[in-house]
Amino acid sequence: MTDDLDQSKRAGVGPETESALDRVSNVVPAVVLVLAAVRVVAAMAIPALREPGWLDVGLCVIAVVAAGYLFVTQKVSIPRLGAALAVAAFWLSPWISSLIHGEATPMASVAMAAVAVVFIAAPPRSPALVRTAVAVGAFIVVLSLAYGLATVFGVLDGAFHSVGDYERTAFGIQALRGITLHPNTLGPIAAVTVLLSLMVTGAKDRWVTWLIPALCLVALLWSQSRSAVAGAVLAVLAAMVVAKWDRLRGVIVGLALLVPLVPFLLFTPLAESLPIEELYNKIFTGRQVPWLVARFLFEESPLTGNGTAAFGKEFWAERASLEWWWQPLHAHNEVLEAAAQAGLIGVVALVAVALTAAITILTRQRESAYLAVALLVLVCVQATVEVPLGVTYFPISYLFPMLVVVGMAYQGELGWRRQLSAGPVRPRLPERNAR
Which among 58, 168, 240, 311 could disulfide-bond with 175, CB atoms 3.0 to 4.6 Å apart, if both were Cys? Predict the structure, then answer.
């Protein structure tokens, strides 16, 4: 058992200053995360609530009030204030674009901006928020696994991914989407929960340390989300490399941030050589289609983008002559999504978030950076073929970026380091001085 001083340090306050306000500041962000998770589950379970609406307005109002409370009661450092401004600018950039193009306010994105600021303004060393994140991710995973098993045994149906006659399978096993409605939503949620649960929980949390990661690993593999599996593996390897050779931290951060640029750089010559109608009918099936469409959309309106209607149903209705079997609703790449939707405004905001993440990792103490490095690698792999941070089109997309922001903002102790350390728990300070 650790002493009161160690416990107060993890909470972010000293024993002489701890008060009811400090305790409330530890609880408020966790409550906001739970409310956001309720919003996500509601969108998953009730079709009528899947479009942004009054629930997102309510969540946004609660998050704004919570953020105001935390900024008033907490000593938020200048770097964390800068991080809060960066993430707010990124998730508000679609709203700015919608104003320019005369579109409806993308409330999911606006609410996400407010919620992210709450998590960044939270006490950085308090374990309450990050443990709540583990519980929320595990809850989604357990429900999805239970739904999958119920479908396997014929009790329910609809837990597996299918589009028309197409079914995603591997070795004869159908891909699990669970309650998340898509394997590429379930996979990343399971992956980020694995990272948080493995690195944050301590030796005293035996059931959390092993059971939650095991269940999340089953859900991750069952989802058959290749980007999530690859991202999780590379994230763990990145954390292990930084733990062994800390001098490579900057190299890993730089390489990770370059990965999402591959589609933009690789397909630029092809995008410039063919008109979209001809290109659309000649390109290989798969993510090359939205990549190149996003490239053309950006070139049409490079400064302000095409608004939140880019890739929407109206977009494809205007191009009905293409007669393509797949009409993607987003760019399947974070950089191209920001460019197509909000133009240079969105790209600059995305760059600000990327630089904030890089500076956060590079300026942290060695052990505190492990989790952040792993999360950055996971996000960058996802951002290459998906839109993990984009929430303008589906409130279900809240959960993954929220869990990532919680993990990136956390600066407390990492339980996995305590488990690997040799010997028993350190004795109390007076006993150590006596010896």
Answer: 168
Alpha carbon distances (Å) from 193 to 148, 228, 400: 19, 12, 9
Q: Please state, for a pLDDT cut of 70, what percent of the chain lies above it.
A: 81
388 closest CA partner among 111, 187, 174:
187
| Alpha-carbon distances of 378 from 113, 347, 402, 420, rounded to whole Å | 21, 20, 14, 23
Encode burial over 410-432: b for 16+ CB neighbours within 10 A, e otherwise: bbbbbbbeeeeeeeeeeeeeeee
Domain residue ranges of the chain, discontinuous segments joined by +: 4-262+333-412
**Rounded Cα gap, residues 374 and 107, in angstroms:** 30
For the CA atoms of 133, 138, 203, 433, what is the dihedral angle to 10 degrees? 10
Residue 267 is given by DSSP the state S
C-alpha 335/C-alpha 5 separation (Å) is 45
Residue 298 buriedness (CB in 10 A; 0-12 / 13-18 / 19+) = buried
pLDDT (mean) for 80-89: 95
Collapse the DSSP code of 156 into the 3-class scheme (helix H, G, I; strand E, B; otherwise coil) and give the result. Answer: coil
Q: Rg of the Cα trace of the chain?
A: 22
Q: What is the mean pLDDT of residues 57-77?
A: 94
